Amino acid sequence: MRHTRALWAACLLLAAPASAADPTTVFAAASLKNALDEAGKAFTAESGIPVRASYAASSALARQIEQGAPADLFASADLDWMDYLAARKLIRPETRVNLLANRLVVVAPKDARVGEAAFTPDWFARALGPGGRLATGEVSSVPIGKYAKAAFEKLGLWAQVQPRLAQADNVRAALALVSRGEAPLGVVYESDAKSDPGVKVVGVFPADSHPPVVYPFAVTAEAKGEGGARFLAYLRGKAARRFFEAQGFTMIGEGASQ
Fold first, then answer.
1. What gap in Å lies between CA 82 and CA 220, rounded to an integer?
2. How many Å apart are CA 181 and CA 153, to the nearest integer?
3. Handedness of CA 142, 146, 152, 156 (dihedral sign)
Protein backbone atom coordinates (compact mmCIF):
# COMPACT_ATOMS: atom_id res chain seq x y z
CA MET A 1 0.00 0.00 0.00
CA ARG A 2 2.79 2.41 0.90
CA HIS A 3 4.55 1.57 -2.38
CA THR A 4 1.35 2.26 -4.33
CA ARG A 5 0.81 5.62 -2.63
CA ALA A 6 4.42 6.62 -3.26
CA LEU A 7 4.13 5.65 -6.93
CA TRP A 8 0.87 7.61 -7.26
CA ALA A 9 2.45 10.69 -5.66
CA ALA A 10 5.38 10.45 -8.04
CA CYS A 11 3.03 10.24 -11.02
CA LEU A 12 1.14 13.33 -9.85
CA LEU A 13 4.42 15.20 -9.48
CA LEU A 14 5.53 14.29 -12.99
CA ALA A 15 2.15 15.28 -14.40
CA ALA A 16 2.03 18.63 -12.63
CA PRO A 17 2.36 21.71 -14.85
CA ALA A 18 5.52 23.76 -14.82
CA SER A 19 5.73 26.26 -11.96
CA ALA A 20 4.53 29.80 -12.50
CA ALA A 21 7.00 32.54 -13.33
CA ASP A 22 9.23 33.64 -10.49
CA PRO A 23 7.91 36.75 -8.75
CA THR A 24 9.55 40.12 -9.23
CA THR A 25 10.47 41.96 -6.04
CA VAL A 26 10.15 45.73 -6.00
CA PHE A 27 11.54 48.00 -3.29
CA ALA A 28 9.62 51.27 -3.61
CA ALA A 29 9.12 54.55 -1.78
CA ALA A 30 6.08 54.42 0.50
CA SER A 31 4.32 57.15 -1.48
CA LEU A 32 4.15 54.84 -4.50
CA LYS A 33 2.09 52.13 -2.82
CA ASN A 34 -1.36 52.74 -4.27
CA ALA A 35 -0.20 53.32 -7.83
CA LEU A 36 2.32 50.47 -7.90
CA ASP A 37 -0.10 48.00 -6.33
CA GLU A 38 -2.58 48.67 -9.14
CA ALA A 39 0.08 48.66 -11.84
CA GLY A 40 1.50 45.41 -10.45
CA LYS A 41 -1.87 43.67 -10.67
CA ALA A 42 -2.31 44.75 -14.28
CA PHE A 43 1.23 43.73 -15.18
CA THR A 44 0.77 40.29 -13.61
CA ALA A 45 -2.49 39.76 -15.48
CA GLU A 46 -0.75 40.60 -18.74
CA SER A 47 2.61 38.87 -18.23
CA GLY A 48 1.96 36.11 -15.70
CA ILE A 49 4.83 37.45 -13.56
CA PRO A 50 3.80 38.06 -9.94
CA VAL A 51 4.95 41.32 -8.35
CA ARG A 52 5.91 41.53 -4.68
CA ALA A 53 6.44 45.02 -3.33
CA SER A 54 8.10 46.26 -0.17
CA TYR A 55 7.28 49.87 0.72
CA ALA A 56 9.24 52.08 3.10
CA ALA A 57 11.33 55.23 3.11
CA SER A 58 13.75 55.31 0.17
CA SER A 59 16.61 55.67 2.65
CA ALA A 60 15.68 52.46 4.47
CA LEU A 61 15.21 50.50 1.25
CA ALA A 62 18.49 51.66 -0.27
CA ARG A 63 20.36 50.57 2.83
CA GLN A 64 18.60 47.20 2.78
CA ILE A 65 19.70 46.68 -0.83
CA GLU A 66 23.23 47.69 0.17
CA GLN A 67 23.13 45.02 2.88
CA GLY A 68 22.11 42.34 0.38
CA ALA A 69 18.32 42.31 0.53
CA PRO A 70 16.96 40.65 -2.62
CA ALA A 71 15.27 43.21 -4.86
CA ASP A 72 14.87 43.31 -8.61
CA LEU A 73 13.69 46.90 -9.00
CA PHE A 74 14.23 50.02 -6.89
CA ALA A 75 12.01 53.10 -7.01
CA SER A 76 13.17 56.08 -4.96
CA ALA A 77 11.34 59.27 -3.98
CA ASP A 78 14.46 61.34 -4.57
CA LEU A 79 17.61 61.32 -6.65
CA ASP A 80 19.99 61.12 -3.69
CA TRP A 81 19.19 57.56 -2.68
CA MET A 82 19.35 56.30 -6.24
CA ASP A 83 22.72 58.05 -6.54
CA TYR A 84 23.73 56.31 -3.30
CA LEU A 85 23.17 52.88 -4.85
CA ALA A 86 24.67 53.92 -8.18
CA ALA A 87 27.89 54.98 -6.46
CA ARG A 88 28.10 51.51 -4.94
CA LYS A 89 27.37 49.82 -8.29
CA LEU A 90 24.16 48.30 -6.91
CA ILE A 91 21.92 49.30 -9.84
CA ARG A 92 22.19 48.72 -13.58
CA PRO A 93 22.86 52.29 -14.76
CA GLU A 94 21.55 51.73 -18.27
CA THR A 95 18.08 50.99 -16.83
CA ARG A 96 17.85 54.12 -14.66
CA VAL A 97 15.03 56.50 -15.57
CA ASN A 98 13.43 59.52 -13.91
CA LEU A 99 9.84 58.42 -14.29
CA LEU A 100 7.58 60.53 -12.06
CA ALA A 101 7.17 63.94 -10.45
CA ASN A 102 5.13 64.97 -7.42
CA ARG A 103 4.26 68.09 -5.41
CA LEU A 104 4.86 68.99 -1.79
CA VAL A 105 1.72 69.92 0.16
CA VAL A 106 0.53 70.85 3.63
CA VAL A 107 -2.33 68.68 4.93
CA ALA A 108 -4.69 68.91 7.89
CA PRO A 109 -7.34 66.53 9.25
CA LYS A 110 -10.37 66.63 6.97
CA ASP A 111 -12.62 68.26 9.60
CA ALA A 112 -10.06 70.76 10.86
CA ARG A 113 -11.02 74.42 10.95
CA VAL A 114 -7.96 75.79 9.24
CA GLY A 115 -7.78 78.12 6.29
CA GLU A 116 -5.56 78.04 3.25
CA ALA A 117 -1.87 77.99 4.13
CA ALA A 118 -0.20 81.38 3.87
CA PHE A 119 3.37 80.10 4.51
CA THR A 120 3.96 82.78 7.13
CA PRO A 121 5.03 82.43 10.78
CA ASP A 122 1.65 83.66 11.98
CA TRP A 123 -0.28 81.15 9.92
CA PHE A 124 1.71 78.14 11.16
CA ALA A 125 1.51 79.40 14.76
CA ARG A 126 -2.28 79.58 14.55
CA ALA A 127 -2.71 76.31 12.68
CA LEU A 128 -0.47 74.32 15.02
CA GLY A 129 -1.86 75.86 18.21
CA PRO A 130 0.05 75.90 21.49
CA GLY A 131 1.09 72.24 21.55
CA GLY A 132 0.47 70.84 18.07
CA ARG A 133 3.12 69.06 16.03
CA LEU A 134 3.83 69.14 12.31
CA ALA A 135 4.23 65.63 10.91
CA THR A 136 6.66 64.82 8.13
CA GLY A 137 9.51 62.41 7.45
CA GLU A 138 12.82 62.31 9.28
CA VAL A 139 14.57 65.38 7.90
CA SER A 140 18.11 64.04 7.59
CA SER A 141 17.36 60.95 5.51
CA VAL A 142 13.71 60.38 4.52
CA PRO A 143 13.03 62.17 1.20
CA ILE A 144 9.79 63.86 2.27
CA GLY A 145 11.53 65.22 5.36
CA LYS A 146 14.48 66.46 3.32
CA TYR A 147 12.16 68.24 0.88
CA ALA A 148 10.18 69.75 3.75
CA LYS A 149 13.30 71.05 5.48
CA ALA A 150 14.59 72.61 2.25
CA ALA A 151 11.23 74.31 1.66
CA PHE A 152 10.94 75.69 5.18
CA GLU A 153 14.50 76.97 5.03
CA LYS A 154 13.89 78.69 1.70
CA LEU A 155 10.70 80.28 3.05
CA GLY A 156 12.38 81.46 6.25
CA LEU A 157 10.24 79.24 8.47
CA TRP A 158 12.68 76.54 9.55
CA ALA A 159 13.61 78.05 12.92
CA GLN A 160 9.93 78.25 13.83
CA VAL A 161 8.74 74.81 12.70
CA GLN A 162 11.82 72.70 13.49
CA PRO A 163 11.04 72.41 17.25
CA ARG A 164 7.45 71.45 16.41
CA LEU A 165 8.22 68.55 14.06
CA ALA A 166 6.98 64.99 14.51
CA GLN A 167 9.48 63.11 12.35
CA ALA A 168 8.20 59.78 11.02
CA ASP A 169 9.97 56.81 9.43
CA ASN A 170 8.27 57.40 6.07
CA VAL A 171 5.69 59.63 4.41
CA ARG A 172 2.75 57.28 4.98
CA ALA A 173 3.49 57.20 8.70
CA ALA A 174 3.49 61.00 8.75
CA LEU A 175 0.22 61.05 6.80
CA ALA A 176 -1.36 58.68 9.32
CA LEU A 177 -0.53 61.03 12.20
CA VAL A 178 -2.58 63.76 10.53
CA SER A 179 -5.37 61.46 9.36
CA ARG A 180 -5.83 60.17 12.93
CA GLY A 181 -5.87 63.71 14.32
CA GLU A 182 -2.65 63.22 16.26
CA ALA A 183 -0.99 66.12 14.43
CA PRO A 184 -2.84 69.23 13.23
CA LEU A 185 -0.60 69.63 10.18
CA GLY A 186 1.66 67.53 8.00
CA VAL A 187 3.93 67.89 5.00
CA VAL A 188 3.48 65.05 2.52
CA TYR A 189 3.33 64.52 -1.23
CA GLU A 190 0.21 65.45 -3.15
CA SER A 191 -0.25 61.79 -4.13
CA ASP A 192 -0.32 60.73 -0.47
CA ALA A 193 -2.92 63.35 0.38
CA LYS A 194 -5.04 62.02 -2.46
CA SER A 195 -4.81 58.47 -1.10
CA ASP A 196 -6.25 59.26 2.35
CA PRO A 197 -9.81 60.63 2.76
CA GLY A 198 -8.97 61.53 6.35
CA VAL A 199 -6.92 64.57 5.30
CA LYS A 200 -7.33 67.66 3.16
CA VAL A 201 -4.75 69.76 1.35
CA VAL A 202 -4.54 73.27 2.79
CA GLY A 203 -1.48 74.46 0.87
CA VAL A 204 0.92 73.65 -1.95
CA PHE A 205 4.53 74.66 -1.49
CA PRO A 206 5.93 76.99 -4.16
CA ALA A 207 7.77 74.91 -6.73
CA ASP A 208 10.94 76.96 -6.31
CA SER A 209 11.06 76.45 -2.54
CA HIS A 210 12.58 72.97 -2.75
CA PRO A 211 14.35 70.66 -5.20
CA PRO A 212 11.99 69.06 -7.75
CA VAL A 213 10.29 65.95 -6.39
CA VAL A 214 11.53 63.32 -8.84
CA TYR A 215 11.17 59.53 -8.67
CA PRO A 216 13.99 57.58 -10.34
CA PHE A 217 13.55 53.86 -11.05
CA ALA A 218 16.26 51.30 -11.85
CA VAL A 219 16.81 47.56 -12.06
CA THR A 220 19.18 46.41 -9.33
CA ALA A 221 22.58 44.95 -10.07
CA GLU A 222 21.61 41.64 -8.45
CA ALA A 223 18.19 41.33 -10.11
CA LYS A 224 17.18 37.76 -10.88
CA GLY A 225 15.78 36.99 -14.31
CA GLU A 226 14.05 39.53 -16.54
CA GLY A 227 11.07 40.32 -14.31
CA GLY A 228 12.43 43.61 -12.99
CA ALA A 229 13.32 44.89 -16.44
CA ARG A 230 9.98 43.83 -17.87
CA PHE A 231 8.02 45.47 -15.05
CA LEU A 232 10.02 48.68 -15.47
CA ALA A 233 9.30 48.67 -19.20
CA TYR A 234 5.62 48.29 -18.38
CA LEU A 235 5.73 51.15 -15.89
CA ARG A 236 7.31 53.40 -18.52
CA GLY A 237 4.57 52.65 -21.03
CA LYS A 238 1.14 54.01 -21.79
CA ALA A 239 -0.69 51.20 -19.98
CA ALA A 240 0.69 52.20 -16.56
CA ARG A 241 0.24 55.92 -16.98
CA ARG A 242 -3.36 55.88 -15.76
CA PHE A 243 -2.37 54.29 -12.44
CA PHE A 244 0.15 57.03 -11.67
CA GLU A 245 -2.01 59.94 -12.80
CA ALA A 246 -5.00 58.64 -10.83
CA GLN A 247 -2.90 58.97 -7.67
CA GLY A 248 -1.67 62.49 -8.41
CA PHE A 249 1.73 61.75 -9.95
CA THR A 250 2.96 63.37 -13.15
CA MET A 251 4.88 61.25 -15.62
CA ILE A 252 8.05 62.85 -16.94
CA GLY A 253 10.65 61.90 -19.52
CA GLU A 254 9.59 59.25 -21.99
CA GLY A 255 6.48 58.36 -20.00
CA ALA A 256 5.04 61.82 -20.45
CA SER A 257 4.90 61.51 -24.23
CA GLN A 258 3.36 58.04 -24.47
1. 10
2. 26
3. positive
